[in-house]
Design a protein that fits this description.
- The structure is a homodimer.
- By secondary structure, chain A is an alpha/beta fold.
- Chain A has one domain: TIM Barrel (Alpha-Beta Barrel), CATH 3.20.20.
- Helix content of chain A is 44%, strand content 13%.
- Chain A contains 13 helices and eight strands.
- In chain A, strands 3-2-1-8-7-6-5-4 form an eight-stranded parallel β-sheet.
- In chain A, α2 packs antiparallel against α11, α8 runs parallel beside α9 and α10 runs antiparallel to α11.
- Chain A is globular and about 60 Å long.
- The first copy, chain A, starts with 8 loop residues before the first strand and ends with a helix.
- In chain A, 52% of the residues are buried.
- About 2% of the residues of chain A have low confidence.
- At the A-B interface, α8, α9, α10, α12 and α13 of A face α8, α9, α10, α12 and α13 of B.
- Chains A, B: One of its GO terms (biological process) is L-leucine catabolic process.
- Chains A, B: Pfam families: HMGL-like (PF00682).
- Chains A, B: Belongs to the HMG-CoA lyase family.
- Chains A, B: This is Pyruvate carboxyltransferase domain-containing protein.
Chain lengths: 321, 321
């Protein structure tokens, strides 16, 4: 039996993932061109940039100019990432972005220490702080995220019980702040997920919180992203983060093994072929993927942009018959 | 519910797929090195070469020398491909290969015409002929294959009912010849399969022939190969063709869109992480994949050879804890 959803919501993270990761430099106008191309595909949320210190992420030094440059299309949400209040205030200052708050916990203490230089306990306090900031600034909090939900290069395998417990922590933190989360993102931060661990973790979460909407944030470092998405779809997951052309990393460049997010157009193909509605025009999305490849100047990992969808063949065989 | 098998049998087709596809020239001694490396991985069947006219497939002109050169390891079957009696006799003449007969039908008349210049009716007669040849030469017939079982660039979508019917034809042909097929391979010749069509087709076949062993021959042109394999595993499929490093095509070379077979080491990773035994030493297989990449001289598509398996991280985190 399958709980496959009738439709899915895909958050396009390619611009942010790609521009902060690619060696570049990528011209500001090219970043704007890609966002504008994505705006015409039917995608309903595009994460455009991140507001982080330019000294850490030089590719995001022009975040404000990128946001100023793209054209908002009605029906599309344009979001951004920030890691602290300074970044959040920069995002708000653009006056052009859809600002939604989020909180985030991490299953691996060691990863948290290396990545954000804080302990798990300190991180809870940080989330309380940011929840206060959101309240003070009148920003609605929409999402809670769990990093390293499927495994960690430092902590190893993650017990699904711990994922369930930490979802409880996210819900308690939001209750304390009088906030209702719309959904929780399970992030496969270091690409440990496989279809069987998707089943274990999502299954455990579902047993405890049957009505909670879940989102999967998948990386393709080990080639499992689409198989993982399928396993998620079979369990009724109807929300995914994805990156056009698989932006965010390239196994064939010097970034050894650091592949990007699941490729948006490949995910759209997977869903549409299963009769799951995405709202996305696949051919237009493939054009955007080819543009992304042209902009970064090297091959990107997605398959449908080279392999092609089945629709042109279907049209031809229909005419033949 | 899942019918996932406890173990799977993987037929390694990388040497044949790769050497007939790569532009080369690839040295005979390199072909031999790769086969010898694969022999140490725990794989139990390696398809080594194809016996086809050198004018059609220059990369296989040295098939006899390759077969003469590799070292047979006990417990491993070394097979080859042929398309007619001339090829079969060449394979037998080596005196070193495991010779098993197979018959093959195709769901698409148009593909058959373009690929083998015969009609579906002529093809039935050809299979009867080759069955007589096998009988005359004392060769046991083991496998029946269905090409284009999931769709065709010329015929479009394939109705699962037609797959079920054509399996009936394969079984009738073999009965006529007093032959019992061990299994039937459903070949996704033009990479039309998706997890949902795997479910439809395999489901339809299972309903009619619940005890028939099935093998999946998957291509990764549209990035679906591992998701398709997972869908197959969930339905109890326990036999797969695969190619080390995804040999057989490279989406990043000039062979636009013609990706190879499902990548063996990625498939092994998928299975082992789900507790499905493959008998393969993943780290040794990754070494063979890296050798394949070195031999062809350009990046090959598999992910685990760059992303790495999880075992080293597990060992490290275990030591840390």
């Amino acid at each position: 039996m399958s709980d496959r959803p009738q439709k899915v919501f895909i958050v396009e993270e390619g611009p942010r993932e790609g521009f902060q990761f690619e060696r570049g430099p990528i011209l500001t106008e090219d970043k704007i061109r890609l966002i504008d191309a994505l705006s015409t595909t039917g995608l309903r949320q595009i994460q455009t940039v991140s507001f982080v210190p330019a000294k850490n992420v030089p590719g995001m030094a022009d975040a404000e100019q990128v946001v100023a440059g793209f054209e908002r299309v009605p029906g599309v949400e344009y979001t951004a990432l920030w890691l602290n209040e300074t970044g959040l205030r920069r995002a708000v200052s653009t006056g052009k972005l859809d600002i939604h708050g989020h909180i985030s916990l991490c299953l691996s203490g060691e990863f948290l220490r290396r990545n954000q230089n804080r302990t798990i306990t300190e991180n809870y306090e940080k989330q309380r702080e940011i929840l206060r900031t959101y309240r003070d600034m009148g920003i609605r909090v929409r999402m809670g995220a769990l990093m390293a939900a499927f495994g960690c290069n430092f902590a190893g395998d993650i017990d699904p019980k711990n994922v369930v417990e930490m979802i409880g922590d996210l819900l308690r933190l939001s209750q304390e702040a009088n906030v209702t989360l719309d959904y929780i993102t399970l992030a496969d931060t270091m690409a440990w997920a496989t279809p069987s661990s998707i089943r274990r973790v999502v299954g455990a979460v579902r047993s405890r919180y049957p009505d909670l909407q879940l989102c999967l944030h998948l990386h393709d470092t080990r080639g499992m992203a689409l198989a993982n998405a399928w396993a998620g779809l079979e369990l009724g997951i109807d929300r995914f983060d994805a990156a056009v052309a698989g932006l965010g990393g390239c196994p064939f460049a010097e970034h050894k093994g650091a592949a990007g997010n699941i490729c948006t157009e490949d995910l759209v193909f997977l869903c549409e072929e299963a009769g799951i509605e995405t709202g996305v025009d696949l051919e237009k999305l493939v054009e955007a993927a080819l543009l992304a490849e042209e902009i970064v100047g090297h091959p990107l990992p997605g398959s449908i942009k080279t392999g092609g969808s089945l629709n042109p063949y279907r049209a031809r065989s229909g005419m033949n018959s």
